[in-house]
Design brief:
The relative contact order is 0.12. It is built from 11 helices and 14 strands. The protein folds into 2 domains: 141 residues, 3-Layer(aba) Sandwich (Cytidine Deaminase, domain 2); 181 residues, Dihydrofolate Reductase, subunit A (3-Layer(aba) Sandwich). With 336 residues, the chain is an alpha/beta fold. α3 packs parallel to α4. The chain binds ligand AOF and zinc ion (ZN). The site of ligand AOF has 17 residues, from α2.
């Protein structure tokens, strides 16, 4: 059973998620203003990057509904992230909450942004507001794991993703002429899942061979949402501008001289990119796996066997091989 604080925080999380494709690299945040008798007086979420914060939108909702007006000294404001205390693109939410005279604030998790980092909470407490911190903290941090990773680790959140056959190959062996025969591993459904993942992340990255052999567009064609920034490596200058990855549909960053994984991550972070989805090929994936610098793995296992081919990166997949063969499965593994 959820406590009543958890119930309203869960609502904040629902609202926050509505900003999913529009707020990056800002966090997704939801806020709910609740009267002493439990009535919801106003709801809001951070709708788009550069726009008003969740708390501002919750009070705007409250202002629009005169019939809900009540004494805010008895009301509680729930917010999934600590209210900000700094002037960014918008003024500090903590000051606005104090001006509104709310008696109690419940915060999901602390904002790791060094410009805030508990200053918002302290400002509310200094104004005499009762503040509760850490209600559904795990869920609140989970929702913004990309934003939090960039703030705390100063690198983007890294998701490795590949598709493989049930017998562990990601592609057929190249032919004698160096051509890579094509093998379709994805279904209509898993393609949508992958394009949704692309929309959820700020960048998508592939190695040079993948660009040369597959000539992918790396867009979100099968899901609505923004196209991620495309990131490709081209140490030996083998890519040509006619390739699909250089189309006008999205920005493309090419690393030529320094393709070291830590350098790439550092540079993406400096560009404000909070997440990168790495979609292959095997050289790049194996290299990143060997560094241990990644956060999630998504492995799509197609119910196909080919006997020989380019071996998929070796990881311990959950589930037995028979479960894997029965249906196309998308595994998600979090790396600690
Ligand atoms: C909140 N509520 O809904 C969000 C917060 O440039 P700005 O003014 O939009 O500030 C962005 C920073 O504010 C962001 O990095 C994060 O620390 C915090 N986001 N804070 O109180 C919100 N989105
Ligand atoms: Zn704010």
């Amino acid at each position: 059973m959820l406590t009543s604080d958890e119930k309203y925080m869960q609502r904040c999380l629902q609202l926050a998620a509505k900003g999913e494709y529009y707020v990056a690299p800002n966090p997704m945040v939801g806020a709910v203003l609740v009267a002493a008798d439990g009535t919801i007086l106003g709801e809001g979420w951070h709708k788009k990057f550069g726009g008003p914060h969740a708390e501002v939108n919750a009070f705007a909702d409250y202002d629009m509904h005169g019939e809900r007006h009540t004494c805010l000294a008895e009301a509680t404001l729930y917010v999934s992230l600590e209210p900000c205390s700094h002037y960014g693109k918008t003024p500090p939410c903590a000051d606005m909450i104090i001006r509104r005279g709310v008696g109690r604030v419940v915060v999901g998790c602390i904002d790791p942004n060094p410009q805030v980092a508990t200053r918002g909470i302290r400002r509310l407490q200094d104004a005499g507001i009762e503040v509760v911190v850490g209600v559904m903290e795990k869920e609140c941090r989970e929702l913004n794991r990309r934003f939090i990773c960039l703030q705390e680790k100063h690198r983007p959140y890294v998701i490795l993703k590949w598709a493989q056959t049930a017998d562990g190959f990601i592609a057929p062996l190249p032919k004698g002429d160096g051509e890579q025969p094509r093998l379709v591993l994805s279904s209509v459904l898993t393609k949508m899942v992958v394009h949704r993942m692309r929309a959820e992340n700020m960048a998508i990255m592939v190695g040079t061979n993948t660009v040369i052999f597959d000539n992918p567009k790396l867009l979100t064609t099968h899901w609505s949402g923004r196209n991620p920034v495309r990131v490709v490596l081209d140490r030996h200058g083998r890519l040509s501008r006619e390739m699909n990855v250089f189309s006008d549909d999205a920005q493309t960053i090419v690393y030529r001289s320094n393709t070291d994984w830590q350098y790439v991550l550092c540079d993406l972070a400096a560009r404000g990119i909070h997440s990168v989805l790495v979609e292959g090929g095997s050289l790049l994936l194996n290299h990143i796996l060997s560094t241990g610098i990644y956060d999630e793995l998504h492995v799509e296992v197609a119910p196909i066997t080919i006997g020989e081919g380019v071996v998929a990166p070796k990881i311990d997949l959950p589930g037995t091989p028979s479960q894997v063969i029965d249906s196309r499965s998308l595994y998600e593994i979090r790396h600690q």
